[in-house]
Amino acid sequence: MASSTVTLEKTTTIQTADAAVDRDRAAILHTPLLEGxxxxxxxxxxxxxxxxxxxxxxxxxxxxKHNEFILDYYRSEWPIKQxxxxxxxxHNETINVWTHLIGFFVFLALTMCAATMVPVESSVSANxxxxxxxxxxxxxxxxxxxMSYGNGAAVAVQALRNASVESELAAAASYQVARWPFYxxxxxxxxxxxxxxxxxxxxxxxxxxxxxxxxxxxxxxTGLIVTSFxxxxxxxxxxDPFFRxxxxxxxxxxxxxxxxxxLMPVFEKPELRWxxxxxxxxxxxxxxxxxxxxxxxxxxxxxxxxxxxYEMVMGAFYLAGVIVYAARVPxxxxxxxxxLAGHSHQLFHVLVIAGAYAHYLAGLVYLSWRDVEGCxx
Length: 377
Ligand SMILES: [Zn+2]
What we know:
The chain is mainly alpha-helical and 377 residues long.
């Protein structure tokens, strides 16, 4: 099986003091070292070269054996330089690395987009009262969003000519809605995507690297779930400190507990795949409580309906991702056929990005809602 895996080419010369490791590896890899020893002469120079080839599942050390349905194209205990360079080579983690690395840059662009297009707290008040007076004539939340963030300045100028909004503007000028829950979510998404990408790229380097990076990966998932609650809870219960602090406190504690559990070595065992999926699914499902609460209190408001729709879409993406991740389909049905492309973890990554984007859209609606309508004083 290993002889068929020559996608990634060698690069370096190693004057290795690591002869023991080399001996072990010789049983696994078809290296020029062995060939050189056989041939001698011209090949003598090649005795010191080592070719970093991809190996089969059977040749992996235990800490890299996560999915027995992916049979080939593994990197195993490569030096860090080769591991880093392998970001640009083809192996069974290439798409896993790039799906979340591209996702990271997409969310970085969305964050910068939000930072420049969404009014900051101090300038919210200018759009606030104007939008409020204009939006009284519409119940469409998308128009609401566009007015608040799209051409807010033009709307503001026009509306400023309308003397009828002056009193509202004066009242609104003293109000600023916090931005931190929205940016906390974006930071959570960025951290999750970056840690995931780093884990997929670097974990094959060594058992220690794998141990540390897997925990950072789990911490990233936990962070994404926890910070996903912040815009939902903060903006929905902006005027209800009792529920706001309790929901935020609950999910933060839940996340801290999940992170503590994920630090335990047993947590990464392949056979506990369903337990991991279950823990993260439970965290996500607990979001149903504030969502149902939101609909009971604000069910008549278009912003509440639209954000809930986005949250349902996000939940559907995440749920599909968790099921695919834990069930390991489609590779379970045809082992070896999806080694490079199409296996469950790649689908899981794409579904996570889709879900996170749906939640970003919900976050924009929340901001728009609370910029227009703060708390009565
Ligand atoms: Zn992953």
